[in-house]
């Protein structure tokens, strides 16, 4: 990519090749945190719903029902963020 013959590579070409082999970190950083954050939110909503169902007063907690409704797409978001972490984390080697 930088030179046809490796033995003829200049210092600048070697440095450029080394810099290009390091993946960008911020997409992985934020995708991982989105994935973990979605998981913890789902865990909290499920735990609260289970506790209120066990106490038999889940219908008296409209905030919990709204939170359960709004958390429906969270598994998909967590899966997509996890997939991004898995695929982007392999680059540029895959």
TrEMBL record:
Q: Which GO terms describe its cellular component?
A: cytochrome complex; plasma membrane
GO terms (molecular function) for this protein are: electron transfer activity; heme binding; metal ion binding; oxidoreductase activity, acting on diphenols and related substances as donors, oxygen as acceptor
User: Which segment of the chain is annotated as a signal peptide?
Assistant: none
Q: Answer whether the UniProt record assigns the keyword Transport to this protein.
A: yes
Q: Which InterPro entries match?
A: Cyt-d_ubiquinol_oxidase_su_1
The UniProt transmembrane annotation reads 30-51, 63-86
- Keyword Transmembrane assigned to the entry: answer is yes
Any single biological process term in GO: aerobic electron transport chain
Bilayer disposition of the protein:
Multi-pass membrane protein
Question: What keywords is this UniProt entry annotated with?
Answer: Cell inner membrane, Cell membrane, Electron transport, Heme, Iron, Membrane, Metal-binding, Transmembrane, Transmembrane helix, Transport
Report the locations given in the UniProt record: Cell inner membrane
Query: What PANTHER family does the annotation carry?
Result: CYTOCHROME BD-I UBIQUINOL OXIDASE SUBUNIT 1 (PTHR30365:SF0), CYTOCHROME D UBIQUINOL OXIDASE (PTHR30365)
Q: Which family does it belong to?
A: Belongs to the cytochrome ubiquinol oxidase subunit 1 family.
Q: What is this protein called?
A: Cytochrome bd-I ubiquinol oxidase subunit CydA
What is the organism field in this record?
Vibrio lentus
């Amino acid at each position: 990519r930088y030179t046809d013959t490796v033995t003829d590579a200049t210092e600048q070409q070697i440095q450029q090749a080394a810099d290009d082999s390091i993946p960008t970190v911020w997409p992985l950083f934020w995708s991982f945190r989105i994935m973990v954050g979605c998981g913890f939110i789902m865990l909290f909503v499920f735990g609260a719903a289970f506790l209120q169902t066990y106490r038999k007063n889940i219908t008296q907690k409209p905030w919990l029902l709204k939170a359960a409704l709004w958390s429906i797409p969270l598994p998909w978001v967590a899966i997509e963020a996890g997939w991004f972490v898995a695929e982007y984390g392999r680059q540029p080697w895959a």
